[in-house]
Amino acid sequence: MNRQHAAVVPFPSAEEAWLWTCRMVAGSVYGVPVQRMPEPILRPCQPLDVAHAVDQLYRRGQLTRDHLAVLRHYGRRRSAPDPTRDREARSRLVWEEAFGLIAPVLAAKGFILREPAEAAAFALV
């Protein structure tokens, strides 16, 4: 099956979408254009779409500089803060708070799958 006929696969979570975005953008910094990077799975968005959603939350005052600092640091590291490490405990709280705001936006755009609890809440309405 070629890419033109491949199924579009949303990310399983906002965290996965963010880490993918960081990986793709980092590649562009090193001279690999974002749209030309090989990706085995066809995604419903471009990396800059995810970055734009995060930027809009920041501009509306929903995300703080602390949120962005943690997202940037762990995005460059390409992993979430480790909850078992005492030194990363605060970062983990900030990370989770940020994705509590980011996930509904990405889900509404169809970039990520709805979380089971979130999907259940929509089913009740």
Descriptive terms for the model:
disordered C terminus; single chain; mainly alpha
Question: Would you mind describing this structure in some detail?
Answer:
By secondary structure, this protein is mainly α. The chain is built from five helices and no strands. The longest helix has 20 residues, at 89-108. The protein is globular. The chain starts with 13 loop residues before the first helix and ends with a helix. Mean pLDDT is 83; it is low at 118-125.
Question: How do the helices and strands line up, and which of them pair or pack?
Answer:
Elements: H1 14-29, H2 47-59, H3 65-77, H4 89-108, H5 116-124
Helix pairs in contact: 1-2, 1-3, 2-4, 3-4
Based on CA atoms alone, the radius of gyration comes out at 15 Å
Number of strands: 0
Cα distance spanning the termini? 38 Å
Indicate the low-confidence ranges by residue numbers: 118-125
Global morphology:
globular
- Main sheet specs: none
Summarize this entry quickly.
With 125 residues, the chain is mainly alpha-helical. The protein is 57% helix and 0% strand. The chain has helices spanning 14-29, 47-59, 65-77, 89-108, 116-124.
